[in-house]
Amino acid sequence: MAVQWLLVCHGLVTLLVVVSFLCGQWPIFQGTFIQRIHFFITFGAYDYFRRLIHFTCGSRGANALLSVEYFCCDRPNPILQGIYLLIIGATYYFIAVSSFIYIPGYYISGVHRYTSLLAVGVGILLFLLTSFSDPGVVNSGNVSQYLSAYPYDNIIFSEKDCSTCKIPKPARSKHCSICNRCVARFDHHCGWMNNCIGERNTRYFMAFILWHFLICVYGIVALALILAGRLKDLKVIYILTVYYGIENSFRRLAPLVVQWLLNSYNTQILIMVFLAVVSLLLAGFFMYHAKLCITNTTTNESFKWHEYMSWQRKVNEAKASAEALKSSLGELNQERSPQESKWRTFFKRSRLQEQQVVKNNKYNKGFVHNIHEVVFPLSTRKSFSVNKSKSR
Ligand SMILES: [Zn+2]
Ligand SMILES: [Zn+2]
């Protein structure tokens, strides 16, 4: 029973961490009820805790907390990396302890003892690759190449220098305040990886999310096959129909089989539910990032576009109002009939309001090109070093 409780706690903590992290990442949750919950989990509750520390321990306690906060949130640190390893290790451990005794089973071969370990191993390898790979750091040595690789669109990126690195800021790059460096085609700083996600490692990041989604699905299928094998080995259907005389129909048998599984294999059922929830979250997160990759946009750029579009809409509205006011005043001066001027004003206004704000993403060069750019980043290609010799 202790294992089940441990598993429930492990599941709840993981989900809380993953959900709050993902909600903070997705722009669709901004300003919504979920975003407010995320804000409370990350900042609101913490603010109360900070006040409590100040109240109980005085300014020395508050200062100590500030140093911890600086270490945890404002500087690169391996805390979330440790939590990831703990989550994947604990999940694999629970599965191995509870279910490996049934492998090989009626529907599952013995090879899955090793393939499951291999799957987790590849997952950890992708994690290490994303964590410790160069995200595309811009320095004085490669800045000229990055400057020619991505032209300025003069909408969301215009020519300027990074005030901290004292080098020109290539289009699509951003200075990461946590790592204190400029990163090309900057996507976001990932706390889980303790690394920026940028031009050179977006491919590993995408592979990491997709692979972990697949591991979860693999786990669910393998556990389902183990349980199906147990049903077969223990002749549960046969006992229910022959011994207890229950009608051999899906409607009559299904609730009894589910009840039997919940009683006898609750650890496996809990793990399956946990894996299903995590896989859904990962699928959503992967689809969000895949859409960005397909349109050759980064998370950083999607925020920038969002800001630009809302600003542009406001400008258009202001223009439309000014234009309507101008035409009303003009018609008043011309002393036209009031009925006619009203209609003319109405149509002029609506025509102006219809002006659509278009997102003109210069870097979007079609599905195939965009995917190719993520899988084979520009800086890994030969043409990138040719640019360097040209610019010299
Ligand atoms: Zn910089
Ligand atoms: Zn960073």
UniProtKB/TrEMBL annotation:
Subcellular location: Endomembrane system
Transmembrane segments: 7-29, 83-102, 114-132, 204-228, 269-288
Membrane topology: Multi-pass membrane protein
Keyword hit for Transferase: yes
Domain named Palmitoyltransferase DHHC: residues: 159-305
GO molecular function, a single term: protein-cysteine S-palmitoyltransferase activity
Major subcellular site: membrane
Main EC class the enzyme belongs to: transferase
E.C. code: 2.3.1.225
GO CC term, one of those recorded: endomembrane system
Keywords in alphabetical order: Acyltransferase, Membrane, Transferase, Transmembrane, Transmembrane helix
InterPro entries registered for this protein in UniProt: Palmitoyltrfase_DHHC, PFA4/ZDH16/20/ERF2-like
Domain of life: Eukaryota
Reaction catalysed by this enzyme: L-cysteinyl-[protein] + hexadecanoyl-CoA = S-hexadecanoyl-L-cysteinyl-[protein] + CoA
Domain notes: The DHHC domain is required for palmitoyltransferase activity.
Family statement drawn from the similarity comment of this UniProt entry: Belongs to the DHHC palmitoyltransferase family.
Protein name, as recorded: S-acyltransferase
Organism, as annotated: Penstemon smallii
